[in-house]
């Protein structure tokens, strides 16, 4: 193989990684993008998803069960966080929310190490996902394709719910004019609490899927959180298609960056973020305020 | 109409927001020392018109010139420095600062003391004296140490106008200065405006016709983003077009 | 910002206490006090943006770190004197401040926070990558040069001398920062926090003023960085990473951005808590995280906010007792 | 149906409403008149729970609602048409209506055909035409129609309408006035805030005049027509 | 009233200062440990501490050191150089520690090392391998008891150059000084053992890299027939696991595969990998078995692998040096440590006088499906290499004499 012939496969790698990033960032798009909460604990929720999944797998041996139970647990934690902590400081503004979620991230990370230990954990995925598939003359891990599938499915489901159902319309409306929605008989605090719960659950799901791939370890929250903010900001606050596009761009930027300008690869995503913020502060697909 | 003595000259002004024309071929002049009231129904574009003059918005088309120099598209602070100062319909003060600081910041700006490091503000005797003068003028000298945000509504309105006056402009623009005020408060404010703007050009948006008649020597009626009529008060109040559009043909009366 | 009831007496007392402190505490504690003083400058410079200017920055470490690298490189390779090195560290911070400021001071709120974050990360990545100059994450080690004053040579190796040197710089910096809040520009900063639009409608060029303030904040952050580098006698990428940027935010927040000396209290408190907690408890991060959360929930204006509200209540009670 | 007694409302420390008392009887159209900034909008926000009263009682259908949350008040059967209209600019007309939709009508509306989407579109043909347009692209009149329609599909028993004709062309003003009349004819109670005296006189069964946060006068349109003093001191420009 | 606040603060501050004072008993001697105990790398710090603790337990059990019981004072450096320096100052100034031990991070190690001439105390580097610590930035207060990057990869180069026919190597390393050292010294070493070896690719990826697929395809495209990586932790696990999943079958020569954390996850994917270190579990000799069992006994049933082993050996060597010096005096210990030879589990380890770099033999190991140590696949030693074969000369290590 020469350098040029790996371009298609490099594209595929970037795509898969980008979609994994989207999976983790999708919940933050709801929480940060729509509600405007600078949630630094999102990475920690994602990590919790991975660890819950590990334990459920240990007890039941059912990976598919993890994909249901772990997100529910993390979603419940998200709801508790919103109801008892974030709601109380919301009126004080961004700095307070930020610091609160910072404290939470600290605590969750330490508790995870306390409960599950400091070592990375081995998560066995079902046999049907752990192998590799041969296609177009390359060997490709089934699990990576599974990630692709789940991410696309999550995007499709979220997209339909957000833009095509009454629930989604209510969320969009509540984000832009919460007082009016409230006056139309909709319990807006409840909407926000559930939205936070869904955001948490998505983080949890991402943890279940991402854990076996990115390794369930105590560092997984800290290493991904900045990437998540980059995705949400570049895509445009609150824009799900934007987050998808940004994730894709960052995945490919990473992948081709490594191929062509390996020394610059890690700077590219921040460069992208700076340029987007300067040129189009509302993000690639964001609505102008 | 002679061009001499014209302070503010607006020709063929347009402004649209997402395709909706809010200001539509508006032409208007203000002479030196003229006291000009803008009236018109809610949503006619009066405040947008003010925002275009003072640089909050950029016109889509048309020219605005002040003392013969074009100012359309300039930044608000440059327009202010040329001698145009405005107040806002929705109280727009520095709520977390004391009343004194609110006025003093405007005085500092007027005197061009913006980035000076030589002296402390509290040691600038002239600045503080002028600030006190303005505070006395607007009747807030006894409340100067209070946070502006904690004042009652009437006092906040007075402060709002006081901030605009303090920059000592050539032309002062007041956007509904008496909105929401009681009769006594309105009387006080009007006499204060009268006193403090003597000899200056005044452009005022006002609904209260008593205020308009007591302050203005020219009235322009804005309707659908354009000037429907312009002239002395007695002419305007008898203009049938104006009656229909603004004063409303009151079938009952 | 509420006008602090500033009196000279407590300030003089504190300075006097700091002057005799070496007689009272151990050498290690003195080192801790030096750290506190340096972070006080850093936090106060941050508060020009956060508390006084109302801007939440995620990128203040860039100026701290840039100043630190400038100081170290100049002293190491060009044998600059220490005061000169620290001054140039400050100027470097200011230079970076004006460069980034051009872009960031246009932004508000979350956009501002995230653009500063992006710039901080860019500088961080540069420091990591430009190994020939910065030494990567190994950093650069150097020796704190002695201070030459006329014919005198003061040995800055000695903790005591170094302590007094840092004390002097800190007092000068805090004095400047305090004075700055009293000048027209300092007052304008508050005006812009309260209502930037109105400030521009009374004739202030808010963009340029914000830029100047951002640059000055960069200067003092650079001075703090230079001092910190001279204190540690080395500089690495942890001077410039996101942790540093959030540390200073936390210090300022914990102390309370609403008062001038709040960030100083925060810098001291966080340094102390971090040092003591991590010595006492292995899982100190849980405790520290819990403290943050409690503080955010129950003292939204920081430690100095607690004090202010206590004082207010006390004032009220006193007034209430007086027969009217 | 709705009774406010001695309601006091504050924004932070400023006292806006002073002991406001007023009633709206079932099926009645009541107008609240007054100059700018005298507390008309605040009265509506207070009823709706958006700016809760600090003191006083608000009774709606024999329930004390002054401590209720806005959504509970809305579910109890009060609809709100705010002055600012607050349509959702990024949503289509249809989606805007969907948010307000509540299918089951209230007891007091019985016998009447409930307001469904179809009925709304029939009543407001211009909205039907622009069903799939984004709310933000509508003209002022269309936005006002949408706001009223959005409240109507919630099938309220009482509807609070705040300055519906503000900034509208005279032709559209007539249309809006007609719509309000239609609503009233259906048996829905209306509390209307209006600056245009003529419209208020035409639509209202009873009128309250408010000034400086206090109810200064109340009576029938006929009484107001004949009381020049009230008009002069509280209403006319 | 302002005064009240200020006095209050002063009061609280002084209270905290008083509380921080520690009591120093005459019959104990303090060893300071400045390791990472928080954050994502806590696992490395903890395991370094296990090794140190075992050595200290062993010494205390055998009657202590110069008649005193050793007490460990452990501080958290939070993975940051400046905190490391601050804590080191505390350990020395406040706790009177005779030595400060740190191994998990080269960055923190460098920072602590350069602070030591001030504190006139020994910094014992038990497992940080960056060349600079005993090379370019050498100072006499720093002793390194583990291999350095140069020696570590030289062992690998020795194996691949002399025992295999593989001649096309791809170097993939973390993007910081350790990774650069690995790449640089492997290039140097391979020239010595098999000059015909070709470097077909060289990559540096960020620490905690998440997706290795783009690198794996680059490796595949380069036509390499083996890979050398100095990665540790998840970066190594990911390289091994993702590489295998993506069909990369060529051997990976690693420096930190003896980590049970890595092997516990990589498992079968590590088949075909080669690991080198100064000691690897499972050497079939009495001395080695005694070494492992003693450790097992004093460490609550753990095994001396990875950094645990390095910290254990390092601490034992320092204790030996103090015994030899007969004093805790820093200068005397330095004198005794320089040139000292300690009998390690696979042969003598000598402390080179000039740069304070331990000269140790090394072990090469390969994948083993089962061992007695862990319930998942681990490694088994296949050869040992004498110290002389992996030694890096002073000149090559970039050593510069210390000048104040």
CATH architectural designation of chain D: 3-Layer(aba) Sandwich
Percent helix of chain D, as a range, is 25-40%
Q: N-to-C SSE series of chain B?
A: EEEHEEHEHHHEHEHEEHH
Number of domains of chain B: 2
CATH fold category name of the largest domain in chain B? Rossmann fold
Q: How many discrete structural domains of chain D? A: 1
- The pLDDT mean of chain B sits at 85
How many beta-strand elements of chain D? Answer: 10
- Read across the widest sheet of chain D, the strand sequence of neighbours is 6-7-8-3-9-10
By helix and strand content of chain D, what is the structural category?
alpha/beta
Strand order of the largest sheet of chain B: 6-7-8-3-9-10
Summarize the structure in words.
- The complex is a heteropentamer of chains A (289), B (253), C (324), D (237) and E (404).
- Chain A has one domain (6-274): ABC transporter involved in vitamin B12 uptake, BtuC, CATH 1.10.3470.
- Helix content of chain A is 76%, strand content 3%.
- Chain A contains twelve helices and two strands, in the order αααααββααααααα.
- Chain A has helices at 7-34, 42-60, 63-89, 94-116, 127-130, 142-164, 166-176, 178-183, 188-214, 220-235, 240-260, 265-279; strands at residues 132-135, 138-141.
- Chain A has a two-stranded antiparallel sheet with strand order 1-2.
- The N and C termini of chain A lie far apart (49 Å).
- In chain A, 59% of the residues are buried.
- The mean pLDDT of chain A is 90.
- Chain C is mainly alpha-helical and 324 residues long.
- Helix content of chain C is 75%, strand content 3%.
- Chain C has helices spanning 8-24, 27-49, 61-78, 82-104, 109-129, 131-134, 159-182, 184-201, 206-232, 242-255, 262-280, 284-298, 302-321, and strands at 140-141, 147-149, 152-154, 234-235.
- A two-stranded antiparallel ribbon of chain C has the order 1-4.
- By secondary structure, chain D is an alpha/beta fold.
- Chain D has helices at 40-48, 70-76, 93-100, 117-123, 125-129, 140-152, 170-185, 197-203, 221-226, 228-235, and strands at residues 2-11, 14-24, 29-33, 55-60, 63-64, 78-81, 158-162, 189-193, 206-211, 214-219.
- Chain D starts with a strand and ends with a helix.
- The relative contact order of chain D is 0.19.
- Chain E is globular.
- In chain E, a hairpin with a 2-residue loop joins β11 and β12 (347-351).
- Chain E folds into two domains: 1-147 and 284-360, 3-Layer(aba) Sandwich (Rossmann fold); 150-277 and 363-395, Response regulator (Rossmann fold), CATH 3.40.50.2300.
- Chain E has 404 residues and is of the alpha/beta class.
- Chain E has a seven-stranded mixed sheet with strand order 7-6-8-9-10-14-15, with helices on both faces. In chain E, strands 2-1-3-4-5 form a five-stranded parallel sheet, sandwiched between helices. A three-stranded antiparallel sheet of chain E has the order 11-12-13.
- Classes of the chains: A mainly alpha (289), B alpha/beta (253), C mainly alpha (324), D alpha/beta (237), E alpha/beta (404).
- At the C-E interface, α1, α2, α11 and α13 of C face α1, α3 and α4 of E.
């Amino acid at each position: 193989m020469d350098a040029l012939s790996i371009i298609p496969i490099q594209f595929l790698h970037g795509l898969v990684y980008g979609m994994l990033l989207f999976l983790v960032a999708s919940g933050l798009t709801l929480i940060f993008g729509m509600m405007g909460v600078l949630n630094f604990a999102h990475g920690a929720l994602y990590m919790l998803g991975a660890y819950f999944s590990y334990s459920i797998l240990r007890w039941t041996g059912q990976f598919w069960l993890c994909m249901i139970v772990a997100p529910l647990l993390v979603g419940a934690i998200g709801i508790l966080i919103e109801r008892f902590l974030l709601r109380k400081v919301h009126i004080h503004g961004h700095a307070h929310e930020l610091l609160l979620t910072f404290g939470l991230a600290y605590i969750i990370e330490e508790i995870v190490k306390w409960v599950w230990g400091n070592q990375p954990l081995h998560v066995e995925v079902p046999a049907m996902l752990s192998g590799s598939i041969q296609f177009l003359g390359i060997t490709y891990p089934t699990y990576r394709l599974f990630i692709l599938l789940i991410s696309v499915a999550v995007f499709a489901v979220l997209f339909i719910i957000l833009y095509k159902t009454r629930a989604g319309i209510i969320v969009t409306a509540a984000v832009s004019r919460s007082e009016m929605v409230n006056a139309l008989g909709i319990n807006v605090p409840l909407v926000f609490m559930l939205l936070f719960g869904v955001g948490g659950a998505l983080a949890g799901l991402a943890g279940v899927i991402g854990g076996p791939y990115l390794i369930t370890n105590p560092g997984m929250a800290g290493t991904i959180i900045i990437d998540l903010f980059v995705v949400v900001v570049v895509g445009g606050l609150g824009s799900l298609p934007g987050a998808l596009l940004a994730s894709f761009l960052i995945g490919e930027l990473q992948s081709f960056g490594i191929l062509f300008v390996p020394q610059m690869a890690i700077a590219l995503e921040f460069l992208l973020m700076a340029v987007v913020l300067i040129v189009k502060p509302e993000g690639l697909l964001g609505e102008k305020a | 109409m002679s061009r001499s003595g014209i302070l503010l000259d607006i020709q063929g002004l347009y402004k649209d927001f997402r395709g909706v024309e809010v200001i539509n071929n508006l032409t208007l002049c203000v002479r030196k020392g003229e006291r000009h009231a803008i009236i018109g129904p809610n949503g006619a574009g009066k405040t947008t018109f003010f925002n275009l003059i003072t640089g909050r918005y950029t016109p889509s088309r048309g020219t605005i010139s002040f003392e013969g120099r074009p100012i359309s598209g300039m930044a608000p602070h440059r327009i202010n420095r040329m001698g145009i100062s405005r107040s806002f319909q929705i109280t727009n003060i520095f709520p977390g600062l004391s009343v004194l600081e609110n006025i003093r910041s405007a005085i500092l700006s007027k005197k061009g003391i913006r980035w000076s490091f030589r002296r402390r503000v509290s040691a600038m005797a002239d600045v503080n004296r002028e600030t006190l003068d303005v505070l006395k003028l607007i009747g807030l000298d006894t409340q100067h140490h209070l946070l502006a945000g904690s004042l009652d509504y009437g006092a906040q309105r007075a402060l709002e106008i006081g901030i605009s006056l303090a920059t000592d402009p050539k032309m002062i623009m007041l956007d509904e200065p008496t909105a929401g005020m009681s009769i006594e408060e309105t009387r006080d404010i009007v006499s204060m405006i009268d006193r403090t703007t003597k000899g200056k050009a005044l452009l005022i948006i006002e609904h209260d016709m008593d205020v308009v008649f007591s302050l203005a020597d020219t009235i322009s009626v804005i309707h659908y983003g354009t000037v429907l009529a312009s002239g002395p008060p007695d002419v305007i109040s008898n203009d049938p077009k104006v009656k229909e559009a603004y004063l409303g043909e009151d079938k009952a009366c | 910002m509420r006008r602090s009831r500033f009196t000279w007496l407590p300030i003089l007392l504190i300075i006097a206490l700091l002057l005799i402190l070496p007689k009272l505490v151990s050498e290690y504690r003195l080192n801790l006090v030096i750290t506190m003083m340096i972070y006080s400058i850093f936090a106060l410079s941050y508060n020009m943006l956060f508390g006084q200017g109302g801007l939440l920055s995620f990128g203040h470490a860039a100026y701290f770190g840039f100043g630190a690298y400038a100081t170290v490189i100049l002293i190491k390779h060009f044998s600059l004197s220490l005061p000169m090195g620290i001054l140039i560290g400050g100027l470097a911070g200011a230079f970076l401040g004006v460069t980034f400021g051009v872009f960031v001071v246009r932004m508000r709120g979350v956009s501002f926070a995230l653009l500063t974050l992006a710039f901080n990360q860019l500088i961080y990545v540069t420091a990591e990558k430009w190994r020939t100059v910065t030494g990567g994450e190994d950093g650069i080690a150097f020796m704190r040069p002695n201070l030459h004053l006329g014919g005198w040579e003061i040995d800055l190796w000695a903790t005591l001398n170094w302590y007094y040197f840092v004390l002097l710089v800190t007092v000068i910096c805090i004095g400047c920062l305090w004075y700055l809040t009293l000048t027209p520009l300092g007052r304008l900063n508050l005006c812009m926090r309260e209502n930037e639009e109105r400030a521009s409608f009374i004739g202030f060029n808010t963009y340029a003023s914000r830029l100047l303030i951002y640059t000055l904040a960069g200067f003092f952050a650079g001075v703090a960085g230079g001092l910190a580098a001279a204190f540690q006698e080395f500089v690495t990428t942890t001077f410039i990473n996101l942790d540093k940027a959030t540390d200073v935010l936390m210090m300022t927040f914990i102390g309370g951005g609403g008062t001038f000396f709040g960030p100083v209290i925060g810098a001291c408190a966080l340094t102390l808590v971090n040092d003591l907690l991590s010595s006492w408890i292995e899982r100190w991060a849980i405790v520290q995280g819990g403290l943050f959360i409690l503080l955010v929930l129950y003292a939204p204006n920081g430690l100095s906010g607690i004090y202010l509200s206590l004082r207010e209540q006390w004032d009220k009670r006193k007034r209430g007792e007086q027969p009217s | 149906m709705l009774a406010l007694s001695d309601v006091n409302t504050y924004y932070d420390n400023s006292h806006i409403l002073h002991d406001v008392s007023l009633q709206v009887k079932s099926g009645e159209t009541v107008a609240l008149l007054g100059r700018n900034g005298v507390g008309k909008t605040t009265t509506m926000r207070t009823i709706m729970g958006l700016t809760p009263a600090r003191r006083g009682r608000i009774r709606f259908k024999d329930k004390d609602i002054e401590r209720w949350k806005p959504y509970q008040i809305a579910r109890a059967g009060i609809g709100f048409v705010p002055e600012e209209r607050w349509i959702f600019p990024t949503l289509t007309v249809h989606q805007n209506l969907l948010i307000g939709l509540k299918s089951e009508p209230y007891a007091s509306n019985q016998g009447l055909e409930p307001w469904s989407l179809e009925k709304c579109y029939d009543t407001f043909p211009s909205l039907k035409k622009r069903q799939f347009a984004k709310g933000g692209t509508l003209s002022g009149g269309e936005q006002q129609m949408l706001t009223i329609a959005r409240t109507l599909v919630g099938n309220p028993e009482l509807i609070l309408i705040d300055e519906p004709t503000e900034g509208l062309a005279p032709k559209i003003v007539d249309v809006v006035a007609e719509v309000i009349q239609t609503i009233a004819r259906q048996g829905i109670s209306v509390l209307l805030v209006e600056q245009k005296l003529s419209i208020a006189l035409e639509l209202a069964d009873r009128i309250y005049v408010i000034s400086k946060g206090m109810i200064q006068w109340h009576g029938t349109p006929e009484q107001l027509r004949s009381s020049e003093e009230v008009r002069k001191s509280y209403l006319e420009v | 009233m302002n005064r009240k606040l200020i006095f209050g603060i002063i009061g609280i501050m002084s209270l905290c200062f008083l509380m921080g004072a520690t009591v120093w008993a005459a019959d104990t001697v303090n060893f300071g440990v400045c390791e990472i105990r928080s954050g994502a790398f806590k696992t490395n710090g903890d395991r370094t501490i296990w090794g140190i603790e075992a050595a200290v337990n062993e010494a205390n059990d055998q009657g202590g050191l110069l008649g005193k019981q050793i007490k460990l004072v452990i501080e958290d450096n939070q993975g940051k150089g400046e905190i490391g320096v601050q804590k080191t100052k505390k350990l020395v100034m406040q706790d009177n520690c005779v030595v400060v031990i740190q191994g998990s991070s080269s960055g923190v190690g460098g920072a602590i090392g350069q602070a030591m001439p001030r504190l006139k105390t020994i910094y014992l580097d038990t497992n940080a391998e960056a060349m600079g610590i005993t090379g370019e930035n050498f100072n006499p207060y720093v002793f390194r008891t583990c291999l350095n990057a140069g020696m570590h990869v030289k062992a690998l180069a020795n194996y691949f150059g002399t025992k295999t026919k593989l001649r096309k190597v791809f170097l993939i390393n973390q993007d910081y000084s350790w990774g650069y050292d690995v790449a640089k010294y492997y290039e140097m070493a391979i020239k010595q053992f098999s000059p015909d070896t070709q470097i077909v690719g060289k990559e540096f990826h960020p620490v905690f890299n998440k997706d290795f697929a783009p690198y794996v395809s680059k490796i595949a495209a380069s036509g390499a027939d083996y890979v050398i990586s100095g990665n540790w932790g998840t970066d190594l696990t990911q390289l091994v696991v993702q590489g295998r999943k993506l069909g990369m079958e060529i051997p990976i020569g690693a420096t930190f595969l003896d980590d049970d954390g890595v092997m516990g996850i990589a498992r079968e994917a590590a088949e075909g990998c080669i690991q080198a270190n100064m000691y690897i579990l499972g050497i079939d000799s009495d001395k080695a078995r005694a070494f492992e069992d003693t450790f097992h006994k004093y460490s609550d049933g753990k095994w001396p692998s990875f950094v645990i082993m390095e910290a254990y050996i390092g601490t034992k060597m320092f204790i030996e040096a103090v015994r030899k010096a007969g004093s805790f005096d820093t200068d005397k210990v330095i004198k005794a440590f320089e040139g000292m030879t300690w009998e390690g589990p696979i042969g003598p380890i000598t402390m080179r006088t000039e740069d304070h770099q331990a000269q140790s033999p090394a072990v090469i190991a390969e994948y083993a499906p089962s061992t007695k140590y862990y319930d998942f696949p681990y490694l088994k030693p296949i050869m040992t290499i004498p110290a002389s074969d992996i030694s890096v000369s002073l000149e090559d290590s970039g050593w510069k004499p210390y000048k104040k």
